[in-house]
From TrEMBL:
Keywords: Cell outer membrane, Membrane, Signal. One of its GO terms (biological process) is Gram-negative-bacterium-type cell outer membrane assembly. SMART domains: PQQ (SM00564). This is Outer membrane protein assembly factor BamB. InterPro entries: BamB, PQQ_b-propeller_rpt, PQQ_rpt_dom, Quinoprotein_ADH-like_sf, WD40/YVTN_repeat-like_dom_sf. The keyword Membrane applies. Part of the Bam complex. It is found in: Cell outer membrane.
Length: 386
């Protein structure tokens, strides 16, 4: 192995083991202690509709095995390759398949197939009706994010900074893009977002790039994080959350960078705010919601970019990507608590506990239901009682 390449590999392995120490680092160790949860007057009633077990979750690996909802079915897969299809309404298991594969990135899908990634750097396609394998393709490196598909192509990013587009029917490569990877990066990669015309994804070097779906030609490149400082840790600017597209705007955020709103057709910055996060963003109630790397939940007005509110009572609790759910904004934490905040002013209005092993995967909203896949494999559906 080339010496420089070996150095990068060792540094990334080190960072994977020490991510929680690095994120939100401070000179005062006391400031990094997760805040104790305080009692508050709950203003909403959160009801658990159903709960099912899907394998062993992430099996103590630093993975975000996000399920996917297609139609009335939610699909989830664990680290050991247990894949289940479950009815979203009542939690009834429709089918289960087992793969002898160490899963690292999940779960993508379209009308016909599901897609997941393995530690061996393979993308596997299975049919949605029963989990029968259709094809598999070996990539250049491990994949930690979910593949995405528009039914014609499957796009995925590997940890070596490469984005690959595969034919959804055959797995044949359509195009590949190689980004400039930094020496050091956070343990994770962004899932692309795909439209009819463009694929948009963020990279560990802080760049957000839009590609033409058919040719893979870059349409534009936007700098969301610009490396600053003398040490490699100070220069971390990863984009690890999936971008969000609404109308002609792309919303994204980087670690030690900024929250950016980019004009989709041109790549021009509409507005930005200095901010740091190792998750993604969500939209709702006219706001952009962010879980910062310090565990502060912040809402910014989509139009004026002004700060609407911030919630600081969850600091250093390793929060998930915030999700707009009904009249609330929801985040989950490392102890498995799910926190419901008012979209109006950010005050805590509800809380439930799912799994003492914690929650890392992004939550999913479908209609009036919230779906959560915990670190130990509990898949649960919640509603807010009216």
């Amino acid at each position: 192995m080339h010496a420089a390449h070996a150095y990068k590999v060792l540094l990334r392995l080190f960072l994977a083991a020490s991510l929680i120490v690095i994120v939100g680092c401070s000179s005062d160790d006391d400031e990094q202690e997760p805040m104790e949860l305080e009692d508050f007057d709950e203003e909403i009633e959160v009801v658990k509709v159903w709960e099912e077990s899907v394998g062993d979750g992430n099996a103590d690996q630093y993975l975000k095995l996000e399920p996917i909802i297609i139609g009335n079915t939610i699909y989830a897969i664990d680290h050991f390759g247990v894949l289940a299809a479950i009815n979203t309404a009542d939690g009834e298991e429709l089918w289960e398949a087992e793969f002898d594969e160490p899963v690292s990135g999940a779960l993508g899908g379209d009308d016909n197939q599901l897609y997941f990634a393995t530690y061996h750097g393979e993308i596997i396609a299975v049919d949605r009706s029963g989990g029968m394998e259709q094809w598999r393709v070996a990539l250049t490196s491990e994949v930690l994010s979910a593949p995405v598909s528009n039914g014609r192509q499957v796009v995925v990013q590997s940890i070596d900074g490469k984005v690959v587009s595969l034919n959804a029917q055959s797995g044949e490569m359509m195009w590949r893009y190689d980004s400039n990877t930094p020496v050091l990066s956070l343990r994770g990669t962004a899932s692309p977002v795909i439209t009819d015309e463009f694929t948009v994804t963020g990279f560990a070097n802080g760049e957000l790039v839009a590609f033409q779906n058919i040719t893979g030609s870059p349409v534009w490149n936007a700098e969301v994080g610009i490396p600053k400082g003398r040490t490699e840790l100070e220069r971390l600017v990863d984009i690890d959350g999936q971008p969000v597209i609404e109308d002609d705007a792309v919303y994204t955020i980087s670690y030690q960078g900024k929250l950016s709103v980019i004009h989709l057709p041109t790549g021009k910055e509409i507005w930005s705010k200095q901010q740091s996060s190792y998750t993604g963003v969500d939209l709702g109630f006219g706001n952009v919601y962010v879980s910062t790397s310090e565990g502060v939940v912040v809402a910014y007005n989509q139009t004026t970019r002004s700060e609407v509110w911030r919630q600081e009572n969850l600091k250093f609790r390793q929060l998930t990507t915030p999700k707009a759910f009904g009249s609330t904004t929801v985040v989950a934490d490392f102890e498995g608590y799910v926190h419901f905040l008012s979209q109006i002013d950010g005050r805590l209005v509800g809380r439930v506990h799912l799994d003492s092993d914690g929650i890392r995967s992004p939550m999913i909203i479908s209609g009036d239901m919230l779906f959560i896949y915990s670190n130990s494999g509990d898949l649960a559906a919640y509603k807010i009682a009216l």
